[in-house]
Amino acid sequence: MKLEFFGAAREVTGSCYLVETGEVRFLVDCGMFQGNREARLKNLTGFGFEPAGIDFILLTHAHIDHSGMLPRLSAQGFAGPIYATRATAELLEVMLPDSAHIQEKEAEWAAYASRKNRHRDDHEEEEIAPLYTVAEAEACLKQVRAVDYDREITPHPGVRCRFRDAGHILGSAIAEVWVSEFDQAQKLVFSGDLGNPGRPILRDPTPIESADVLVVESTYGNRLHKNMQDTLDELAHAINDTLHRKKGNVIIPAFTVGRAQEILYLLHDLTRQGRLHGLDIYVDSPMALAATEITMKHMELMDSEARNLMQWMRQGKNVPRVNFVQDVAESKALNGITSGAIIISASGMCDAGRIKHHLRYNLGRPECSILITGFQAAGTLGRRLVDGAKLVRIFGQEIPVRADIYTIGGLSAHADQASLLSWLGHFRKPPHRTFVVHGEEAIAFGFADLVRKNWHWNVEVPGRREVVKIE
Hints:
- 35% of the residues lie in helices and 22% in strands.
- The chain has 15 helices and 22 strands.
- It has helices at residues 37-44, 64-67, 70-75, 86-117, 122-128, 134-141, 228-245, 259-272, 288-297, 304-315, 328-334, 355-362, 381-386, 417-424, 441-455, and strands at 2-7, 16-20, 25-28, 56-58, 82-85, 144-147, 152-156, 159-165, 173-181, 184-190, 213-217, 250-253, 280-284, 321-325, 342-345, 369-372, 391-394, 397-400, 404-407, 433-437, 459-460, 466-469.
- The strands form 4 sheets. A 7-stranded mixed beta sheet has the order 6-5-4-3-2-1-22. It has a 7-stranded mixed beta sheet with strand order 7-8-9-10-11-20-21, covered by helices on one side.
- A hairpin with a 7-residue loop joins strand 8 (159-165) and strand 9 (173-181).
- Helix 4 runs antiparallel to helix 6 (134-141), helix 4 runs antiparallel to helix 9 (288-297) and helix 8 (259-272) crosses helix 10.
- 47% of the residues are buried.
């Protein structure tokens, strides 16, 4: 059996792993690289394997860095089933067409800018084309097969699989996979993205006790998150100071699935506690309403605190005013609001979508604040803001950074170092081989060293397109 790492290897985005025996070839995730121009070029190059030769895909969750290349794979010949949890399957119906729509619009803008500048080489010509169209995204959705948590499936005579709750976003899963070869079965566990225990709304990640081969994420393998109380204190201060003292706007870049719903939850909870009041919230993302409705459909996946808050919200007394912005005209109208607004918009890393317009109109205003609430990959606009950039370029225009930048680290949907180690601590014996992925290179190597030092596990940090043989 061979395991090949096509993405999220010594970096965070582009999750894609190929498992191959003499009888079957399947992927775990097929994600988009996100970040700078180098990431876009990776998406444009070939997959490194023949799409038509893949038998099936196991998808851990709906985030675009795990699912975003599925339509391109299908358009290039993959015709097999895509297995995912029920909530993930529903979210894909919103996220993949939205991803395609954003790409089509970005391609239109790039083509316009190129014509305006009147120079473009062949490589830039290729980059202008979207990775896939809305029609291709919708066609790909027909291949998705919904699966319940904890139910064992047999996608191939030599493969069994079970999805366990990863606690990262709605529908996120840990994949337990048993692969048979030469009349022997080996258990592979892919952690996907592990959630941060104790966060609002979702349940904690499911403990796993055994694996022959483990592939584990390490996004925050080098740090500890703020505790939730300190996080809420910082969030309440940032909003009150901006809205009531400075009389500005609060701009929150947020992943439309997971983070946007969690922020809405916290803003309502802080209002219920009396720490915030009179909030005017604008959720500016065409798919945010659909994602929130899907979240509300799956109350069975929420923790008890979330269900209690939902009951308070239904009473309708002194609750925040929430406006889901749908069309472009409504979105543009938000740019005329100079104070008193909380604007939540995608993308979470500030590199695409409507958030770029809101940053363009608010970053240069010292009375405003930008709240960074999630991981910002290297090369993204969000990362440059976190790293203290004083000047950024948005739509070809130089924008001075005068707004306050808050990094609300405790809201991360990823487990921190302590939580990752705690999850690994449930294994009754060390896996034969452990591969650390989904972390920037130095962080992945550092976390691997920590696991090796603490528990003497056989830990490796694979590189992109590295092939390992599983004996």
